[in-house]
C-alpha cells in the first residue's frame, strides 16, 4: 500500500513538474515548494508543496530588468489614475485603468495608478510589479 501511494505521488509530482517547465518562475516555485513539502511531510508533502510552489512562482515572477528600466524612464503623466483599493502584485488591476504597452515586450504593459508605476500582464490584467 505504501508503494502505491509513493508511486502515485511521484507520478503526480512528475506531471506537474513537466507542465511547469514551460515557465521559469513556475519551475523554481515548484522546486522550492517540493523541497519544503518533502522536509515537512515526506513524499506526499513534496507533491503538495510542488503544486503550491508552482502556483506562487508564476504569480510573483518579476519582469526583465529592461522592462522595469523602460517604465521608470517614461515621463510621468499630467494626471494619474486613482482607484479606491490598494494595488497588489498578483491581483488584477481594475478594468478602467488604461494600460500602455511596453515596446519590444508585448507581454508587459504599464500604468501609473495611485501615483505608483505598475507593470501589468496585459492578457490577464494581473499586476506583475509595483515600482516604488
Strand order of the largest sheet: 1-2-3-4
Series of secondary-structure elements, N-terminal to C-terminal: HHHEEEE
> What is the gyration radius calculated from CA atoms?
19 Å
What is the mean predicted local confidence, pLDDT?
73
Number of strands: 4
Structural class: alpha+beta
Shape: globular
Q: N- to C-terminal separation?
A: 53 Å
Q: What is the oligomer described by this structure?
A: single chain
Major pleated sheet? 4 strands, antiparallel
**Low-pLDDT residue intervals, each spanning 5 or more residues:** 2-28
Strand content: 15-25%
Signal peptide: 1-19
Pfam family, one: DUF1236
Keywords: Signal
Protein name: Membrane protein
Question: How would you describe the overall organization of this protein?
Answer:
The chain has 2 domains: 2-59; 65-131, no CATH class. The chain contains 3 helices and 4 strands. It is globular and about 55 Å long. Strand 1 and strand 2 form a beta hairpin. It has helices at residues 2-20, 24-59, 65-73; strands at 100-102, 105-113, 116-121, 126-131. Strands 1-2-3-4 form a 4-stranded antiparallel β-sheet, with helices on one face. With 132 residues, it is of the alpha+beta class. This is Membrane protein.
Amino acid at each position: 500500500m505504501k508503494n502505491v501511494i509513493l508511486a502515485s505521488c511521484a507520478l503526480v509530482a512528475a506531471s506537474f513538474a513537466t507542465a511547469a517547465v514551460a515557465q521559469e518562475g513556475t519551475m523554481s516555485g515548484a522546486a522550492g515548494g517540493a523541497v519544503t513539502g518533502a522536509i515537512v511531510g515526506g513524499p506526499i508533502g513534496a507533491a503538495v508543496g510542488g503544486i503550491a510552489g508552482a502556483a506562487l512562482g508564476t504569480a510573483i515572477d518579476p519582469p526583465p530588468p529592461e522592462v522595469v528600466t523602460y517604465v521608470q524612464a517614461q515621463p510621468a503623466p499630467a494626471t494619474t489614475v486613482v482607484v479606491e483599493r490598494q494595488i497588489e502584485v498578483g491581483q488584477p488591476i481594475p478594468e478602467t485603468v488604461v494600460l500602455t504597452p511596453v515596446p519590444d515586450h508585448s507581454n508587459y504593459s504599464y500604468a501609473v495608478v495611485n501615483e505608483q508605476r505598475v507593470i501589468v500582464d496585459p492578457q490577464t490584467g494581473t499586476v506583475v510589479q509595483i515600482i516604488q
